[in-house]
Amino acid sequence: MEKSASQPTEDGQQSNSAPKDVAEVLTKHTKKPMFLKHVRVQHVHERSSHSDCEAEQEAQKRGTTELQARVETLTNQLKESEEARIRQEEARTKQEEENRKKQVHLEAKLDFLLNHISPG
Known about the structure:
mainly alpha
């Protein structure tokens, strides 16, 4: 840090950017330079190693796989639910038809009885 601060700039003047020097050193030598974020000197990107990137990619793959499995499960549940609804609708329609036939049969019996009862 002292080396970079004491080196002259391109125009021959001494560098006055201590925060930049601190930021460079912290970025190079620490995994998470939170100090700069806390003092709001500079937005510093955390350095990421190859293993960090691989771990992140693996986590994304797992997340994608989990999401795909969840979507597949929900799709299957939706299909099953739709099939159950269709079966219920068919059963209801069948029951309504049976009730109509019973009603017609009972009305026919009632008409027969009413026609054969003598008034009085």
